[in-house]
Write a structure and sequence with these properties.
Helix 1 runs antiparallel to helix 4, helix 2 packs across helix 3 and helix 4 runs antiparallel to helix 5. It is elongated, with a radius of gyration of 15 Å. Helix content is about 70%, strand content about 0%. The chain is mainly α. The protein is built from 5 helices and no strands.
Length: about 100
């Protein structure tokens, strides 16, 4: 579990810009609301998330995203004793990693 967290933090810190842009489309909309205000076509969930991000502060979003995702990965992969457990958990958390953990 610690190895997965370490790899995630390295990717987040140094290689996040190389990931496909489609993985962060929703994040871009939320950050647009946060920085420039909402538009009529945005969903309420985006506005609520932008309000939460404004409490955290736009300068702290990367740190918040990395720390909360690392905590999730640690708890999702702890107490793994068999290779089958590791790969089944990795299969279940892979969509979360790709779609939710590299952009606020």
């Amino acid at each position: 579990g610690v190895l997965i967290v370490f790899v995630y933090v390295i990717i987040y810190a140094y290689f996040r810009e190389m990931l496909p842009e489609k993985w962060s489309v929703d994040s871009a909309k939320i950050l647009e609301i946060l920085n420039y205000g909402g538009t009529d076509e945005m969903d309420n969930s985006f506005a609520v998330t932008a309000a939460l991000f404004s409490i955290i502060g736009s300068n702290n979003l990367d740190v918040f995203t990395c720390i909360s995702s690392a905590i999730f990965l640690f708890f999702a992969t702890r107490n793994i004793r068999k290779a089958g457990d590791f790969f089944s958990r990795l299969l279940l958390i892979a969509p979360c990693i790709m779609l939710n953990m590299f952009a606020p």
